[in-house]
Amino acid sequence: MSASHGLGAASVVLPGSRFELGADAPLRLDCGVEIAPVTIAYQTHGRLNEARSNAILVCHAISGDQYVAGTHPVTGKPGWWQQVVGPGRVLDTDRYFLICANVLGGCMGTTGPREINPATGQPWGHNFPVITVADMMRLQVRLLDHLGIEQLFCVIGGSMGGMQVLELAAHHPERVFTAVPIATAARHSAQNIAFNEVGRQAIMADPEWSEGDYLARGRNPDRGLAVARMAAHITYLSAQALHRKFGRNLQSRDHVTYGFDADFAVESYLRHQGSSFVERFDANSYLYLTRAMDYFDLAADHGGSLAAAFKGTPVRFCVISFTSDWLFPTRESRAVVHALNAVAANVSFVEVESDKGHDAFLLDEPEFHATLSGFLDGAAEHRGLPRKTST
Amino acid sequence: MNDVSAKTQAIRVDLQLIADMVEPGSRVLDVGCEEGTLLDYLGRFKRVDGRGIELSMAGVRAAVAHGLSVIQGDADTDLKDYPTGAFDYVILSQTLQATRDPRGVLLHMLRIGRRGIVSFPNFGYWRVRHHLLLKGRMPVTTTIPYGWYDTPNIHFCTIRDFRLLCVELDIQIERALSLDGKGRVRSDRGGPFDNLLGEQGMFLLKRG
Fold this sequence. Notes:
The complex is a heterodimer of chains A (391) and B (208).
Chain A: E1 17-21, E2 27-28, E3 34-35, E4 38-45, E5 55-59, E6 85-86, E7 91-92, E8 97-101, E9 116-117, E10 122-123, H1 133-147, E11 152-158, H2 160-171, E12 176-182, H3 190-205, H4 222-236, H5 239-246, H6 265-278, H7 283-295, H8 306-309, E13 316-322, H9 330-342, E14 346-352, H10 366-383
Parallel strand pairs in A: 5-8, 5-11, 6-7, 11-12, 12-13, 13-14
Antiparallel strand pairs in A: 1-4, 2-3, 4-8, 9-10
Helix pairs in contact in A: 1-2, 3-4, 3-7, 4-6
Chain B: H1 3-6, H2 13-21, E1 27-31, H3 37-46, E2 49-54, H4 57-65, E3 70-72, H5 75-78, E4 87-93, H6 102-112, E5 113-121, H7 126-135, H8 159-168, E6 171-179, E7 185-187, H9 194-197, E8 200-207
Parallel strand pairs in B: 1-2, 1-4, 2-3, 4-5
Antiparallel strand pairs in B: 5-8, 6-7, 6-8
């Protein structure tokens, strides 16, 4: 296979907005490197009000991007949070101004390993500096400066998006009125680092990866990336959800074949997940983003005390977890809640009952949506934003 | 501020009594807040900055979906996280008797809050005594509606027991009410018959 499909560098013109940090305003990264110029690709929905007080920053998860709603330009499928974003929906685009940016290190237009390194004229590839969640937010804060938004009404996101939420709330509390970290943790667990390592090894074991230099050589580690995605996808589901969806059903056959084809429906499903992912995702990007998650440890930046990260915070928090999420189990959210209680922060915490695993935050979960809606309505009242016009 | 004219929203009589003890504009932690009825009232009519802890997920979801700051948590384990003096009032409405360590909960309550408001069913109420004395059975009344086998109330006390514990813990009782089965005030002077005639006790407490 070659890099001629969806993500061959800049082969698709990506819709949306872009903002560039020029050479005079470099981005200083945690690893000590400064990069410039830096591009951030983002989408907005709704209208910023005159007081600039109704902006919501949506932070995407590792496999997401800035296309929260509407049709995705590469896959042709609905945006990843279509269930939640839109007129009259929970993140009501009639009331709020939504911003979602592709993260630093991503592969949908923001500076990352897939983009051209201006110094060499070649894709950054494996020469891209290692980035952190804090670096991602440094860039997004620069975007907020550019958009003239001093304080977000809300920053919200699940999984890696939730880490970004916690990062912004902890280190830029003045930029945030409410923070909604969903299905996330204040630090990546050993188990999650282990899963990420399996994914990275799958990519790097693919000879097409070419020491990370595949784009320059016109190759693509599709098989490695697909396996990484397959392994990760299992962690996003629950045993119960897999059983309900597939059981031991066979895939378009009546008997097992005594071979290694995808006999089982669940195998076929995973293979599909893997192969469709490589159409829209860059393998190096996957390496860098998983690394950023592994490095995330909010307490470590504050002498090991998570509470210290939130001391004196004026931010109103709504922490949400899901009962069947074993990737970011409720105890991780509870640790955040305990830290927030220790500084008497304003916090709500709900564990939503769902058997859909980690992915529940992306799915149609009425109880989750009702909780979120209620929290945002309450906060909007405190922020002096107009009430919902109709129900 | 004229609170009386604002009381357009009816809440349970005993909750109203608690609400009346709370100074407007104060910071309140309601432990065992259920669906947040009291917090909602305090926020709307007394400009209170309120937080809640509730054990049941159904209660928490309802409260948060209603725009209240409530967390799922347990009075026995989660109060220790809160910093000293973080609240003006900590409220335990019909919650103390369901905790594993009422003594520890009371101490934390008055560490976290400058004042505490506690209400509980009075096991010294004459009907309760009557149940035990004449029928020889565990009492079931309007304020203690459960059978012995399915009750969440694991640490019953009488009003007199509670007063003695307050002395032991150096907790000052600022107000003592005894209530009837419907939550109405029977006596607000902390008189000697409270323990016999009050179906519930309600106390405004302060660190001694």
